[in-house]
Design a protein that fits this description.
Elements lengths: L1 H17 L5 E7 L2 E7 L4 H12 L8 E5 L3 E4 L21 E2 L13 E4 L12 E2 L3 E4 L6 H26 L3 H12 L3 H10 L1 H8 L9 H7 L14 E7 L1 H8 L16 E5 L2
Antiparallel strand pairs: 1-2, 1-10, 2-9, 3-4, 4-8, 5-7, 6-8, 6-9
Helix pairs in contact: 3-6
Length: about 270
């Protein structure tokens, strides 16, 4: 009898030791309803920082200030609190960034929760904003569309390589002019600049790992959907486990020319206590 009792206690202890740790969940409350996000354990620094900001109420009263249908909804800008209608938002942040934490299996699938950041020409190490985040709505792709995404990412990568090269060789004025051409979408003159630096760019690009969408990624993006061109460029550190219909509702609202919703969408974020 004593042996049976001992074995029963041992079984309980072993079960407790092998049980999975509880997931870290946060609740994002909006006028449209609640979104529940699970934060990933592997992206340690992003998880820790987000919990810290949520605990002190940093996000409460901030807006989903950038909304693009079939792409994503973005929030977390502290300057969006009490912002006047029509004001361009998105430049607000904390006084620090979070190092890039890339996990290849964390895709920009529908419902992915990721950190916003500045572009590669200003931020080549891909450091994340400490407060601004986005939730992927995305869309379902065909394989032909995914092939086009690969080409788009290749062109973007080569453009950043060229801009970095111009900076390194002291062509600051030419770089400034090129950025203006990009802002103005002056494709004819953009091509001329690209052609001028083609050989140097191609040589550098061959030393990088080309962006390729794997068979498994294709399976996800042709069924679940998402935004594949962002993979490997931004830190995905969680996913929506409840409330994607709320994300869809927010993604469908009317916006101005800066992608800011016409009617403010404030949020409150709290850690869900297990």
């Amino acid at each position: 009898m004593k042996n049976i009792f001992f074995l029963a206690i041992l079984a309980i202890l072993l079960a407790n030791c092998t049980s999975k740790p509880k997931a870290t969940l946060v609740n994002i409350s909006t006028p449209y309803g609640d979104i529940v996000v699970k934060l990933y354990d592997s992206t340690t620094q992003h998880k820790k920082n987000f919990i810290k900001l949520a605990d002190i109420g940093f996000f409460n009263g901030t807006l989903f200030h950038r909304v693009i249908g079939k792409f994503m909804i973005q929030g977390g800008d502290p300057t969006s609190k009490n912002a006047k209608p029509g004001v361009l938002l998105g430049d607000g942040d904390t006084n620090y960034t979070i190092p890039f934490e890339y996990v290849p299996s964390y895709l920009h699938k529908r419902g992915a929760f990721a950190a916003a950041r500045e572009n590669d020409d200003k931020n080549p190490l891909k450091a994340s904003s400490a407060s601004q985040f986005y939730i992927v709505q995305g869309k379902v792709f065909t394989n032909d569309e995914l092939n086009a995404v690969e080409l788009k990412v290749e062109r973007r990568t080569k453009q950043y390589i060229m801009m970095d090269f111009m900076k390194r060789v002291g062509k600051e004025e030419e770089l400034k002019n090129f950025r203006q051409l990009v802002d103005n979408r002056d494709t004819a003159n953009i091509r001329l600049v690209i052609e001028k630096y083609r050989n140097a760019v191609e040589a550098q690009y061959l030393r990088t790992k080309p962006f390729k969408i794997t068979d498994e990624q294709r399976r996800v993006y042709t069924t679940v959907g998402g935004t594949p061109h962002l993979d490997g460029a931004y830190t995905v550190f969680g996913e929506v486990i409840s409330g994607m219909e709320i994300v869809d509702k927010i993604a469908a609202v009317k916006t101005d020319t800066n992608d800011r919703p016409i009617e403010d969408i404030p949020m409150t974020i709290k850690l869900i206590k297990n």
